[in-house]
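Lecture notes, part 5. Sequence design as translation. It can be helpful to think of inverse folding as translation between two languages: the language of shapes and the language of residues. The source text, in structure tokens, appears below.
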């Protein structure tokens, strides 16, 4: 029996990947993942067998990984960012549990989009923060909007993942309107696209004008709390130290 590594590759290519993740890919016989992410890696692991799959084929992808591991292969299942944050770690463990197999699964963490984007912006998530995905593929919008409401009420810095897609372009507008009920219109908002990848862009806007910027599925949006400010082009959420 082989072993399954569930790997968070970080936000971009090789440079933001941990040495542990890199080593797991090196020892794996097979690397499985969504094609757009594997394309970022393939050139660095020449000769390695890659199996690329489509975006919404997560369950099939995990079943394939299990099948190959049961055949005796060491398999690396790759997610972008951290595999335990809207990634493949949970579904892989569920598929293995359901199969009744006792195959070894090792989850290897990665740098998630929020912390990679925060580093580009300065230090916007120095205090308590909430990570919320606006994707309603598996979560009803009522629950998503409730979480935005409570996070805004609780003065959390809010990191929005999956902020927009063709089918639900309006959610980001509603999310902003909810936060506006509790926060100043001038609250800084960081909008970072393609972190660590070619075409990386970053903008610091305000809650009021944030929607004037392009926000898509390759973007993460960081809304500051009531204390967040901008200085010398950096977005800073103070932790509370006295200087
Ligand atoms: N497991 C990933 C998240 C997957 S959900 C992680 O830990 O980062 C996909 C969403 O994550 C995207 O819609 C986007 O909001 C965010 N994201 C992932 N990679 C990103 C990157 N390189 N730049 C900006 N946002 C990114």
């Amino acid at each position: 029996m082989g072993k399954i590594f569930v790997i968070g590759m970080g936000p971009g290519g090789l440079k933001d990947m941990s040495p542990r993740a890199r080593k797991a890919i090196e020892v794996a016989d097979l690397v499985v993942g969504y094609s757009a992410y594997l394309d970022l890696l393939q050139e660095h692991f020449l000769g390695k067998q890659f199996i690329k799959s489509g975006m919404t084929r997560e369950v099939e992808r995990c079943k394939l990984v299990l099948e190959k591991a049961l055949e005796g292969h060491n398999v690396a299942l790759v997610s972008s960012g951290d595999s335990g944050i809207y990634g493949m770690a949970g579904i892989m463990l569920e598929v293995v549990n359901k199969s009744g197999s006792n195959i070894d699964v090792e989850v290897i963490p990665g740098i998630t989009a929020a912390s990679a984007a925060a580093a580009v912006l300065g230090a916007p998530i120095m205090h308590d923060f909430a990570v919320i995905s606006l994707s309603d593929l598996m979560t009803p919008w009522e629950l998503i909007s409730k979480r935005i409401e409570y996070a805004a009420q609780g003065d959390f810095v809010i990191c929005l993942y999956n902020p927009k897609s063709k089918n639900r372009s309006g959610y980001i507008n509603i999310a902003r309107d909810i936060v506006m009920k509790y926060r100043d219109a001038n609250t800084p908002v960081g909008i970072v696209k393609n972190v660590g990848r070619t075409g990386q862009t970053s903008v610091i806007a305000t809650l009021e004008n944030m929607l004037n910027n392009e926000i898509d599925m390759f973007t993460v949006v960081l809304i500051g709390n009531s204390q967040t400010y901008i200085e010398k082009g950096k977005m800073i959420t103070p932790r509370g130290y006295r200087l």
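The translated text above is only one of many valid answers, since several sequences can fold into similar shapes. The longest strand covers residues 3-8.
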